[in-house]
Amino acid sequence: MNTTELFHILALLKIEGVGDIVAKKLINHCGSAEDIFKAKPQHLKSIDGIGSVLLQKLKDKTVFQKAEQELNYIQAEKINVLHYQNENYPNRLKHCIDGPVLLFGSGNMDFENQRMISIVGTRQITSYGTDFCKKLIEDLAIFNPIIVSGFAYGVDIIAHQAAMDNKLQTIGVLAHGLNQIYPKNHKKYVSKMEQNGGFLTEFWSNSNPEKENFVRRNRIVAGMSEATIVIESAEKGGSLITAMIANDYNRDVFAVPGRISDKFSQGCNTLIKTQRANLLTSAADVVYILNWELETKTTKAVQKQLFVSLEMEEQKIYDYLQHKGKQIIDVIALECDFPIFKISSLLLNMELKGAIRPLPGKLFEAI
Questions:
Q1: What stretches of 92-230 adopt beta strand conformation (E)?
Q2: Which residues lie closer than 8 Å to 214 by C-beta, 6 or more apart?
Q3: Is 42 helix (H, G, I), strand (E, B) or coil?
Q4: Please, which of 18, 170, 301, 342 could form a disulfide with 163 given CB 3.0 to 4.6 Å?
Q5: DSSP structural state of residue 151
């Protein structure tokens, strides 16, 4: 995207009444943001949803001054600009009708990896939530997912730290401009995150972390991810909003169950009870529901090291698959007399050891 087009998109987004949906409609109809400002009123009026009030506001010349100021900041700070029609834009977010026209980024982000999960939850994370989050990311690390969160206190920052500890790409989606970091205590993590991942925001440099911005931020977290995982949440909170948005986007949602008396498990328990989230007890649940498979070369490397150490329950499954050949997980659970939640965990462990491999259609076979 050239500088002239970026300038006109910035100006367009400053027009009162022009949000992401309207802006995309205008750009798609006219071909570019620059052509919108050149188009005749009668041509624009023929576009569905564009009325005389908005046409009058498109004549506002003050937006060009605002656009120039932001463009100067982008160039001076070498901000990465991601346009919804370009390849460097998160692929899943392109398919969200209200996805941002522009995203501003810093760091080294690579969106070619399609295994991208968001991990959200309470800012007042407990030791139970902390331990589960760290173990989950450690166990998923072999699949090399991108970990997305909101860089806030609690679950967010634990998820980012665990991703960095396991050398995974991690992305913080901010509710303000890139000229600041909120909360300020998290500035110490910025440099390391930008080495393998970084930060995204739709907000301009003069935007502060206002309350309403966090709700808008949540749709980006949910929209760019294959699945959203809620670690801990009270009965109400931003993480539940993210889960609802993920449901609306037809994304998978997972929630970690907790005791009914725990305040910060009530939200998760409700998501599971109302069937708006899959119950999450281990990394195996994520692997099974999302149908992730290890790369063949990774499986072979692990096999050489760990194949010799199967537990008794794992040996039972291995012997069964050796005898029966390829089988789906439900049949394995039935024939080997294990509940589904347990068989998922056992199969993942065996896969990591190189004893079995997953096949399309949720089939497994012994190696």
A1: 102-108, 116-120, 146-149, 170-173, 197-201, 227-230
A2: 150, 175, 238
A3: helix
A4: 170
A5: -
First to last CA, the chain: 49
| Residues 328-341 as b or e (16 or more Cβ within 10 Å = b) | ebeebbeebebeee
In this model, does residue 299 exceed pLDDT 50?
no
What phi, psi does 357 have (nearest 5°)? -140, 145
Task: Give dist(CA 137, CA 133) in Å, integer.
Answer: 6
Render pLDDT for 300-345 as a digit per residue (tens, 0 to 9).
Answer: 444 444 444 788 899 999 999 988 888 888 889 888 988 877 888 8
Q: Are 345 and 297 in contact (CB under 8 A)?
A: no
Q: Determine what percent of the chain falls in helix, strand and coil, rounding each to the nearest 5.
A: 50, 15, 35
Provide the pLDDT for residue 96.
94
DSSP state of 81: E
Asked if the model's pLDDT at residue 97 lies above 50, the reply is: yes
User: In Å, how far are 15, 227, 252, 284, 341 from 291, measured between CA atoms?
Assistant: 44, 12, 12, 10, 15
Q: Can you give the pTM of this predicted structure?
A: 0.81
Q: Which two tokens stand for residue 106?
A: 């810093």
Q: Which amino acid is present at 254?
A: F
pLDDT tens-place string over residues 237-273? 889 999 999 999 999 999 999 999 999 999 999 999 9
Q: How confident is the model at residue 295 (pLDDT cuts 50, 70, 90)?
A: low
Q: Residue 45: what pLDDT?
A: 84
> What separation in angstroms does the CA of 327 have from each of 55, 113, 182, 201, 304?
62, 29, 49, 45, 24
8-state DSSP, 143: G
Q: Which residue has the tokens 């290890």?
A: 294
Residues 6+ apart with CB under 8 A from 37: 8, 11, 12, 58
**Cα-based angle 68, 70, 75 (whole degrees, multiple of 5):** 95
Mean pLDDT calculated for residue range 277-287: 93
Specify whether the CB–CB gap between 116 and 226 falls below 8 A: yes
Residue 210: how many CB atoms within 10 A of its CB?
A: 11
